[in-house]
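Sequence, please.
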C-alpha cells in the first residue's frame, strides 16, 4: 500500500515534499550552527529558510527506495548511493559554475575530490532509513490530506519566492566569482611586474595580522571592523601599484625601457587602478554577507583571493 501511494503522488505533492524537506534541512543546518556559535546563523546558498539540496536529496531517496520499502538494509544501501551521487553531482556542478566549493570533505578520510566522503555517505544511509520509516510517514499523511487547491496555491507561492531568491543568490555567487577572478588577476599582475623590474628589495607590506590584533582590542562594531579592513586592503593595493608606477618611471628615465614597453606597462598599471576604483565598498559588503551564510566555501583556483576576502570579514 505504501508503494502504491508513493507511485500516485501528484507533481504538486512532490513539489510540496521538496519545500518541506528543504525547510527541514535549513532548520537542521542553521540550528546546528546557531547552537555552536550561540547566536542565530542563517546557513545555506539562498537567503530564505530552505536548503534545496536537502529537498532534492529527500526526493531522490524516496524515489530510489520505492521498490524496497519493506527491506531496511536495501533502503540504507539505495538511499546512501542515491544521496551520495546527488551530493557529488551538485558539488561538482557548483564549483564548475562558481569556482567555489560550498562544502568540502577534503579533511575527511576516504573522500572523493572533497565533494563526498565515506562518513557522510554512511550518514546519508541512516538518514534514508529514518526518512522512509519515520519522518515521511506523518508528512505524507499531512500532504495527502490537504486539498489539491491549497497544495497548488502554496507551491505556486513558494516557487515564486524561491525563484526570486535563486536569482539574487546566484547573482551574489557570480559576483563573488568575478571578484575572485579580478583580485587574482590583479595579484598575478603585480607579481609579474615586480619580477620583470627585478626589484632589489621586495615591497614590504605592513604586518596586517598584528594591526588586526591591535584593532581587536578596541570596542568597535563588526561593521566598523570590516570597513577598516577594507580601507587597509585598498591602501595596501594602492601602495603596491604606486610603487610599481614609480619604479617604471625611474627605469624609463634611465632608458631601461623603450617608449612602447613603458606605455604597455603603465597602461596595465592604470587599468589595475581603474578596476580597483570600480569595486565599490557595497560590492564587498554584499559578497561578505554571501560568505557569512556559506563559511565553509573554498576555491582551488582562487584560494588566495578568497582568503583575502575572508580576512576582510574577520
Amino acid at each position: 500500500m505504501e508503494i502504491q501511494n508513493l507511485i500516485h503522488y501528484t507533481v504538486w505533492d512532490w513539489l510540496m515534499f521538496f519545500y518541506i524537506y528543504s525547510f527541514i534541512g535549513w532548520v537542521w543546518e542553521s540550528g546546528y550552527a546557531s547552537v555552536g556559535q550561540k547566536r542565530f546563523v542563517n546557513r545555506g546558498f539562498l537567503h530564505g529558510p530552505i536548503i534545496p539540496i536537502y529537498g532534492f536529496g529527500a526526493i531522490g531517496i524516496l524515489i530510489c527506495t520505492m521498490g524496497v520499502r519493506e527491506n531496511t538494509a536495501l533502503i540504507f544501501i539505495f538511499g546512501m548511493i542515491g544521496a551520495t551521487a546527488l551530493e557529488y553531482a551538485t558539488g561538482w556542478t557548483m564549483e564548475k559554475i562558481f569556482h567555489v566549493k560550498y562544502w568540502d570533505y577534503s579533511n575527511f578520510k576516504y573522500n572523493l575530490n572533497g565533494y563526498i566522503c565515506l562518513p557522510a555517505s554512511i550518514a546519508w544511509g541512516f538518514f534514508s532509513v529514518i526518512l522512509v520509516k519515520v519522518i515521511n510517514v506523518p508528512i505524507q499523511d499531512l500532504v495527502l490530506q490537504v486539498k489539491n487547491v491549497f497544495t497548488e496555491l502554496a507551491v505556486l507561492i513558494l516557487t515564486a519566492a524561491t525563484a526570486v531568491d535563486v536569482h539574487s543568490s546566484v547573482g551574489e555567487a557570480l559576483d563573488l566569482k568575478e571578484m575572485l577572478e579580478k583580485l587574482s588577476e590583479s595579484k598575478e599582475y603585480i607579481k609579474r611586474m615586480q619580477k620583470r623590474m627585478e626589484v632589489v628589495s621586495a615591497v614590504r607590506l605592513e604586518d596586517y595580522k598584528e594591526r588586526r590584533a591591535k584593532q581587536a582590542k578596541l570596542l568597535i562594531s563588526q561593521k566598523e571592523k570590516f570597513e577598516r579592513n577594507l580601507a587597509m586592503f585598498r591602501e595596501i593595493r594602492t601602495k603596491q601599484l604606486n610603487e610599481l608606477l614609480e619604479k617604471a618611471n625611474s627605469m624609463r628615465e634611465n632608458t631601461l625601457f623603450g617608449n612602447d614597453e613603458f606605455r604597455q606597462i603603465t597602461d596595465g598599471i592604470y587599468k589595475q587602478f581603474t578596476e580597483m576604483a570600480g569595486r565599490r565598498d557595497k560590492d564587498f559588503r554584499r559578497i561578505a554577507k554571501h560568505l557569512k551564510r556559506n563559511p565553509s566555501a573554498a576555491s582551488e583556483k582562487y584560494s588566495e583571493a578568497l582568503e583575502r576576502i575572508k580576512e576582510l570579514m574577520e
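The radius of gyration is 26 Å.
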